[in-house]
Specification:
It is a single chain. This protein is an alpha+beta fold. It has a single domain, classed as Ribosomal Protein S5, domain 2 (2-Layer Sandwich). Helices cover about 35% and strands about 25% of the residues.
C-alpha cells in the first residue's frame, strides 16, 4: 500500500496527513506525538479515529501541521486521519461519522469590526 494523504482543517489550523502501513508511529512536523503534544488529552484527540476502529498499531502516520493553536491543530489532525482512513477502507465511514470525526467544524473566529474594540464588543457609551 502506498501512502494515502488527506487534509484536515479546524479554525486556522491545517493538517496534511500521510498514512502508510506500519507499526503505529505518529510523527508531527518531524517530532513524535508525545513531544509535539505533551498534553495527554490532545494526544487522545489525535488518536480517537484510530482507537474507534481499533487500528492504532496498524498504520504509521506523518502529519504536517500549520497555523492555529494546539487545540485546533489536534482536531485538524483528527479530521485528517479520519479522512485518510476512509480513503483506505470506505466501510469505516459510518462508524467514524457516528463518532463525529468526519464533520469539519465550521466555527471560526469572527472578524473585528471597525470602530469597535472586538468583534461584538462596543466602546463604552458616554452620553456627554
Amino acid at each position: 500500500m502506498e501512502a494515502v494523504n488527506a487534509i484536515g482543517r479546524r479554525k486556522a489550523a491545517v493538517a496534511r496527513v500521510f498514512l502508510t502501513e506500519g507499526t503505529g508511529k505518529i510523527v508531527i512536523n518531524k517530532r513524535d506525538l508525545e513531544s509535539y503534544f505533551p498534553s495527554s488529552i490532545l494526544q487522545f484527540i489525535v488518536k480517537q479515529p484510530l482507537n474507534t476502529l481499533n487500528v492504532s498499531d496498524k498504520y504509521d502516520i506523518r502529519i504536517n501541521l500549520d497555523g492555529g493553536g494546539y487545540k485546533g491543530q489536534s482536531e485538524a489532525a483528527r479530521l485528517g486521519i479520519a479522512r485518510a482512513l476512509v480513503k483506505i477502507n470506505a466501510e469505516d465511514k459510518p462508524a467514524l461519522r457516528a463518532a463525529g470525526f468526519m464533520t469539519r467544524d465550521p466555527r471560526v473566529v469572527e472578524r473585528k469590526k471597525p470602530g469597535q474594540p472586538k468583534a461584538r464588543k462596543r466602546f463604552q457609551f458616554s452620553k456627554r
